[in-house]
Amino acid sequence: MSNYPIIKLRRGKEESLLRFHPWVFSGAIESMDNKIEEGDTVKVVSHDGNPLGVGHYQIGSIAVRMLSSSLDEIDTDFYAKRLAEAFELRRGALNLCREDNNAYRLIHGEGDFLPGLIVDIYGDTAVMQAHSPGMHYAREIIARSLVDLDGAGIKNVYYKSETTLPYKASLDPQNDYIIGGYHDNVAMENGLKFYVDWLKGQKTGFFVDQRDNRALLRKYAHGRKVLNMFCYTGGFSIYALSGGAELVHSVDSSAKAVALTDANVKLNFGDSANHKAIAEDAFKYLGDMPNGYYDLVILDPPAFAKHRGAIHNALRGYQRLNAKAMEKMPSGSLLFTFSCSQAVSKEQFRLAVFSAAAQTGRRVRILHQLTQPPDHPVNIYHPEGEYLKGLILYIE
Question: Residue 40's domain spans which residues?
Answer without folding.
Answer: 6-68
